[in-house]
Design goal:
The structure holds 2 protein chains of 2 kinds.
Chain A: E1 4-10, H1 14-25, E2 30-33, E3 46-48, E4 51-53, H2 71-79, E5 85-88, E6 90-96, E7 102-107, H3 110-120, H4 125-147, H5 154-160, H6 162-168, H7 172-178, H8 183-189, H9 193-196, H10 205-218, E8 220-223, H11 226-240, E9 244-246, E10 251-256, E11 262-267, E12 270-279, H12 283-288, H13 297-305, E13 311-319, H14 323-326, E14 332-336, H15 341-346, E15 353-357, E16 372-380, H16 394-413, E17 421-427, H17 429-436, H18 454-459, H19 461-464, E18 470-472, H20 483-502
Parallel strand pairs in A: 1-2, 1-12, 2-9, 6-14, 12-18
Antiparallel strand pairs in A: 3-4, 5-8, 6-7, 10-11, 11-12, 13-16, 13-17, 14-15, 15-16
Helix pairs in contact in A: 1-11, 1-20, 3-4, 4-6, 4-10, 7-10
Chain B: H1 13-27, H2 40-48, E1 53-64, E2 67-74, E3 91-98, E4 101-108, H3 113-117, E5 121-126, H4 132-140, E6 146-149, E7 166-172, H5 177-187, E8 194-201, H6 210-219, E9 223-229, E10 238-239, H7 244-250, E11 257-262, H8 265-276, E12 285-287, E13 309-316, E14 319-326, H9 331-337, E15 356-360, E16 363-364, H10 374-379, E17 381-382, E18 388-389, E19 393-396
Parallel strand pairs in B: 7-8, 7-11, 8-9, 9-10, 11-12, 13-19
Antiparallel strand pairs in B: 1-2, 1-6, 2-5, 3-4, 13-14, 15-17, 15-19, 16-18
Helix pairs in contact in B: 5-6
The chains are: A alpha/beta, B alpha/beta.
Chain lengths: 505, 400
């Protein structure tokens, strides 16, 4: 029958696209439903005048090259999605203002990174290397746990993988402190916290370390033609393998049988059925579109126990001068008022942390000749939007916020940015709420708070999601927050559904 | 004090992680999560960009020959209580069903943002020869007519971080409407800018919103008004078309200014050459979208076309329909005339709402209105609102 599929994937975000591409490629009859008129969710692009802006991607971890592929490279490659990757071999420049501040630029590559760390904070190299050695131990332990299909021998764990257990059950600050890293060295090493949106005294060390290690070992990559290139490449894989992608087709209802198993959805005025439903949309939205009695208590409790993760304020600028004329020399600059990530988090509304990117540094011709683009990003939760803010005050609210960061950066660097603005767009959690439809405009779903860290999520996945034939993928699910993580999540879930429906390994 | 060592951390904490997590989850309430609108960011997103607004016509104002304004208010009976706020210069997208045809049209709002808070939008419609929508609206809309619209959108707005504080507005004919809104917004204190409005019309009697504009200019010193009449000399008015000299004469001498231009395609063709003589930076020149692109065959790049009519096969969610399409009509137009409610908003190639997959065939897209993304070219996506068929074509679209 026409309205019956093997797999229906709800939401064409990164994970939904990869999951649908994976099931379609295996020969399963796949339908991907997306509420927007474009694929990708945040992984998209938008045009203003003669500029095409990247809406969300700062840098993709785990890509690597043809010769030395990382897992993201492999996912796209195996699916047959061709991406024109461009590389950034610096990790970041980080500037902390104030008397005890610093201005440090760190290259990728463990040795180069450690050498520069030593220059920035004399005497820290040994401990920094010890930190990366822990990353290796984490990898070894995960390889063992994977080999044991998630059921490792506790004795082997305790005797052979003790350091993994330590790293996996403590915060970044706890581990770095135990290694004897000075405050300044810790602050610099914790620069990436904003990518996960949880301060380093809370975020799980294993998660953070995996991300840091990946950027340092592989560098970062981005697609030549903005994230829209990745999303369209994945849609092509789905279509080429007989799968369907329906845009402008929001799922309004999830359907269950009398035993509470997911059997289908309603979208575009049709009832559509599948053996397996994969949801790239957040459980909160799924539960709100389901009959209340179909959602198990445990699943509801988990959703209610969680906090929403970070969203952002992003200022996209098309400038009518070149990056050289402005004096830009970096792709990514983190600017903070203090090195302490908890303070940065707490004082986010006072402008304590923001990230400045110039894509022309990696992709010189990403804007027309004689121009360049910049984007400014700072952490902002949907719940940070003032309760009393009225629709008619919104434009001024976001412009005021944008201008504050622009002025701050102009003061810091002496650059003259504002007079060169030819195009500007300012996105806030309201923008993400509009386009993604997530609660509070969260980008990656639920916060990876200390208790709800990645490893705990992965270990608990079976208990966390108990609705038969419904599997979640995306930043809100087990694989957790991060651009690369969402692609990984889609791959893991897609493969799982293929095994379930087709058997084999 | 012992030497720093990772072993100072207990590995057994690992075993406490999952039980602690379970405990936290167990203590949470087992209730359906709150609805999306209960979150501030989502509520605001919905207030600013509702999917639909149910309105009705409360007043019809004759503006001139074959030009009427329609005042639209919330249709309370249909559950619409408030109107979405907007920025002066934005347009309202209106879906229409005319006979068998299903189409949408964008109309600039001539009311002010403040008036939307008081429950009032105003759009102005001029009869266009062969214009299905304009004829229908002018002939059928009356007080009480129910109208369903999308929320206001569009980029022809004053952006204080980008634009000069002094705007020189160039309006042609019905292109005055967004400037009426902007002038009101300035007078009402909602936009902090100055406006020198240079308004080109054929004759005195073609001037739309004359009384309103003159009152605004008189009341508010930030607004200046200059008429440029092409077909008759008139006291106190410039004569001819809007030239570089006229712009220079009235634009501020000692400060930077941004040119905003809105009018028919012929006006852009002329005015763009004049604006080029002023030597302004690109950032100081803003165009409203061109509107429907017509007569592609007059473009130099337009290729030789073997026929003037083709087959257009449209796939919609797995089903397909084949219709005839004219080489002179956009794919969107052909679909609309055949009752296919293809998604579209700006109809000018820019907003991307009609983003669709070209499955087979060749199309012509005029360069000046090609607002596609780079990757769209590699993967065969088009904006049907500005794509003209050059062969039989297959396309996939997703009506809402």
């Amino acid at each position: 029958m026409d309205n019956h599929y093997d797999v229906i994937v709800v939401g064409a975000g990164n994970a939904g696209l990869v999951a649908a591409a994976t099931t379609a490629k295996s020969g399963l009859k796949t339908l991907l439903l997306e509420k927007h008129n474009l694929p990708g969710g945040s992984a998209s692009s938008f045009v203003r005048g003669r500029f095409e802006f990247e809406p969300s991607l700062h840098e993709l971890a785990g890509v690597g090259t043809k010769e030395k592929p990382g897992n993201i490279y492999q996912i796209f490659d195996e699916l047959g999605a061709k991406i024109d990757w461009r590389y950034e071999y610096n990790t970041f420049r980080t500037i902390a203002k104030g008397v005890d501040g610093y201005d440090v630029k760190l290259p990728a590559g463990i040795d180069a990174f450690c050498t520069e760390m030593e220059k920035a904070v004399p005497g820290c190299e040994k401990q920094v290397r010890a930190l990366f050695a822990l990353a290796k131990k984490v990898d070894d332990a995960i390889a063992y746990i994977t080999k044991m299909k998630g059921k490792p021998n506790p004795l082997v764990m305790i005797t052979k993988h003790g350091d993994f257990m330590r790293v996996a059950s403590h915060s970044v600050e706890q581990v770095m402190d135990a290694l004897g890293l000075s405050e300044k060295a810790r602050d610099i090493l914790c620069t990436y916290w904003g990518y996960l949106g949880v301060p380093t005294d809370e975020v799980n060390c294993m998660h953070y370390l995996a991300m840091l290690n990946s950027f340092v070992v592989n560098g970062a990559a981005m697609p030549y033609k903005r994230s829209h290139e990745m999303s369209l490449a994945l849609v092509k894989v789905i279509n080429d393998n007989g799968g369907e992608v329906w845009f402008n087709s929001e799922v309004t209802r999830f359907l269950y049988d009398e035993n509470g198993a997911a059997i289908g959805v309603e979208a575009a005025g049709k009832k559509l059925y599948a053996k397996e439903i994969i949801s790239n949309i957040i459980p909160h939205n799924v539960f709100n579109r389901s009959d209340a009695d179909k959602i198990p208590q445990r699943d509801l409790k988990l959703a209610n126990a969680r906090k929403f993760g970070i969203s952002v304020l992003t200022v996209y600028l098309g400038l009518d001068c070149t990056m050289e004329e402005l004096g830009i020399k970096d792709y990514t600059v983190f600017v903070t008022t203090t090195g302490n990530t908890r303070k940065q988090y707490n004082d986010r509304l006072e402008g304590s942390m923001y990230i400045v990117n110039c894509l022309n540094d990696v992709i010189p011709d990403c804007t027309p000749k004689g121009t360049c683009s910049m984007f400014f990003t700072m952490p902002l939760f949907g719940s940070d939007i003032p309760k009393e803010l009225k629709p008619e005050q919104y434009k001024k609210y976001k412009n005021d916020l944008a201008l504050r960061y622009l002025r701050d950066y102009e003061d810091l660097t002496g650059m003259s940015i504002v007079p060169h603005i030819e195009e500007i767009s300012v996105a806030t959690p309201v923008t993400f709420a509009r386009y993604l439809g997530t609660p509070e405009g969260t980008i990656y779903g639920y916060m990876n708070s200390g208790w709800d860290n990645m490893l705990a999520r992965i270990s608990s996945e079976k208990e966390d999601y108990t609705i038969p034939n419904l599997t979640f993928c995306g930043g809100h699910s087990a694989r957790s927050i991060g651009y690369s993580s969402t692609y990984n999540s889609g791959k893991i879930v897609g493969d799982r559904i293929v095994r379930k429906l087709k058997g084999g390994n | 004090m012992s030497k720093p060592n990772i072993r100072s951390l207990s590995k057994l904490d690992f075993l406490k992680m999952i039980p602690a997590r379970k405990q936290i989850i167990e203590e949470a309430p087992a209730q359906t999560p709150p609805p999306l609108d209960s979150y501030k960011a989502n509520e605001l997103a919905k207030q600013l960009h509702p999917d639909f607004q149910f309105l009705k016509v409360s007043q019809v104002i004759e503006r001139g020959e074959e030009v009427k304004s329609f005042v639209l208010v919330p249709d309370q009976e249909k559950g619409c209580k408030k109107l979405a706020y907007f920025s002066a210069g934005q347009y309202l997208v209106i879906p229409l069903k005319i006979g068998n045809a299903k189409l949408v049209r964008p109309y600039s709002l001539s009311s002010s943002p403040k008036e939307s808070l008081q429950g009032k939008y105003e759009i102005t419609v001029k009869r266009v020869e062969g214009g299905l929508a304009s004829q229908y609206i002018l002939d059928h809309w009356q007080v009480g007519t129910q109208v369903r619209t999308i929320a206001p959108e569009g980029l022809f707005t004053y952006e204080p971080l980008r634009d000069a504080k002094h705007i020189v507005g160039l309006a042609g004919g019905c292109g005055i409407t967004p400037f009426v809104s902007l002038a009101k917004a300035i007078a009402e204190g909602d936009e902090d800018a100055c406006l020198t409005l240079i308004y080109g019309c054929r004759t005195n009697k073609d001037i739309l919103f004359k009384a309103e504009l003159e009152e605004l200019a008189q009341k508010c010193e930030k607004i200046k008004l200059i008429y440029v009449l092409s077909d008759e000399p008139s006291e106190g008015c410039e004569n001819g078309f809007i030239t570089a000299d006229i712009i220079r004469k009235h634009a501020p001498k000692s400060e930077e200014y941004s040119i905003f231009i809105c009018g028919p395609q012929a006006m852009y063709d002329f005015a763009d050459q004049e604006i080029a003589k002023l030597g302004l930076r690109k950032k100081f020149i803003r165009h409203e979208v061109f509107g429907e692109y017509r007569n592609p065959a007059r473009d130099a790049e337009y290729p030789e076309v073997p026929k003037d009519s083709f087959k257009l096969k449209v796939f919609i969610r797995g089903e397909s329909t084949t219709i005839d399409c004219n080489a002179n009509d956009t794919l969107l137009n052909s679909m609309e005339k055949n009752g296919i409610a293809a998604p579209a908003h700006c109809r000018s190639g820019i907003c991307g709402w009609c983003h669709s997959k070209l499955l087979s065939g060749e199309v012509y897209v005029p360069k000046t209105v090609d607002g596609r993304r780079l990757a769209d070219f590699d993967y065969g996506y088009i904006h049907p609102c500005c794509s003209f068929p050059l062969s039989d074509v297959e396309i996939e679209v997703y009506p809402r």
